[in-house]
Specification:
Elements lengths: L2 E6 L8 E6 L2 E8 L2 E6 L13 E3 L2 E3 L6 E3 L5 E3 L2 E2 L2 E2 L7 E7 L2 E5 L1
Antiparallel strand pairs: 1-12, 2-3, 3-4, 4-11, 5-6, 6-7, 7-8, 9-10, 11-12
């Protein structure tokens, strides 16, 4: 497993997120009060861009149809709601991160 530096600690303020492309993978990194998490950038439902979603603690809501994902694990917390329909959605890919000094590194 290789690790790649993707950012410095100061690049992503607490409560914020930032997207990166690493080895062809679209990844979203979230800073939750100094703890960093990484998941796939696009919703598993209809490819909504989670970097434009709403971050609520450790949950992110897709801006397209409202599916929610736990940023700590990638687990789908709730599928999208379209009118009266609630749909199932696959979990998001979660990636391991490590912080070494000021460097945020992702393990792929």
């Amino acid at each position: 497993m290789t690790t790649t530096e993707i950012a410095k600690v100061g690049d992503i303020p607490a409560g914020q997120m930032k997207s990166f492309v690493v080895e062809g993978k679209e990844i979203l990194v979230i800073n939750d009060a100094g703890k960093y998490y990484a998941i796939g950038r696009y919703c598993t439902h209809l490819h909504g861009d989670l970097s434009h979603g709403k971050l609520e603690g450790t949950a992110i809501r897709c801006p397209r149809h409202g599916a929610q994902f736990d940023v700590t694990t990638g687990r789908c917390l709730s599928g999208p709601k379209i009118g009266p329909l609630k749909l199932n959605t696959k979990d998001e890919t979660a990636y391991a991160l490590e912080v070494a000094g000021q460097s945020i590194r992702i393990k792929l």
